[in-house]
Specification:
This protein is of the alpha+beta class. It has helices at residues 11-23, 83-86, 126-142, 153-160, and strands at 2-8, 27-32, 39-43, 55-59, 68-71, 74-77, 88-92, 96-97, 102-103, 106-111, 113-115, 121-123, 144-145, 150-151, 164-165. It has an eight-stranded mixed beta sheet with strand order 3-2-4-7-10-1-14-13. Strands 8-9-15 form a three-stranded mixed beta sheet, covered by helices on one side. A two-stranded antiparallel sheet has the order 5-6. α1 runs antiparallel to α3. The longest helix has 17 residues, at 126-142. It is globular and about 50 Å long. The two termini are 22 Å apart.
Length: 166
């Protein structure tokens, strides 16, 4: 379990959320799946978020170490229920497929915590909560609530024009 806010948000609005994460001391983390072997990119540069990407993590360094694992396909972020996952905030941009007239919901998500190797519960650090709460407030300022999800004005217009959701 964890906490999340679902939203429909295009790239330009998402950049404001990402900039706030950087202002809070986070690193942007993403997996470059377009090259083989895959690589993990960690940066404090907003330009790492490109219109072709849709999934990121905001890494809160004071919350713990960030672990990557190497597989046959390349390097991947260890974002499961573990120490590394406790230091990450999942974030995404809504994928908008103009030709298919579809828009995908995205979210901010943090896990509740994890059980360590001794079956001791390690809760999500308070510093992650603080950043997550700031990001949620920014999402709410950039969007309106439709009863189930938050959506930017741009995405609301697409949905009103008949775009399907996924």
């Amino acid at each position: 379990m964890g906490r999340q806010i679902n939203y429909y948000m295009e790239y330009e609005s998402f950049l404001q959320v990402a900039q706030l994460a950087l202002d809070c001391g986070c690193e942007i983390v993403k997996e470059d799946l377009n090259v083989r072997p895959t690589t993990v990119i960690r940066t404090r540069d907003i330009s790492a978020i490109t219109p072709n990407d849709w999934m990121f993590w905001f890494y809160v360094p004071e919350a713990g170490r960030l672990v990557t694992k190497t597989y046959d396909c390349g390097e991947r972020v260890d974002h499961g229920f573990c120490e590394s996952g406790n230091a990450l905030i999942e974030a995404g941009v809504s994928l908008i497929c103009e030709n298919e007239r579809q828009i995908r919901r995205s979210r901010l998500y943090v896990q509740s915590g994890y059980f360590d190797g001794s079956d001791v519960w390690i809760p999500r650090p308070k510093c992650v909560d603080a950043v997550y709460n700031k990001l949620v407030r920014r999402v709410k300022k950039l969007t309106t609530y439709d009863g189930f999800n938050y959506r930017t004005e741009y995405c609301a217009r697409l949905l009103d024009e008949g775009f399907n959701t996924r």
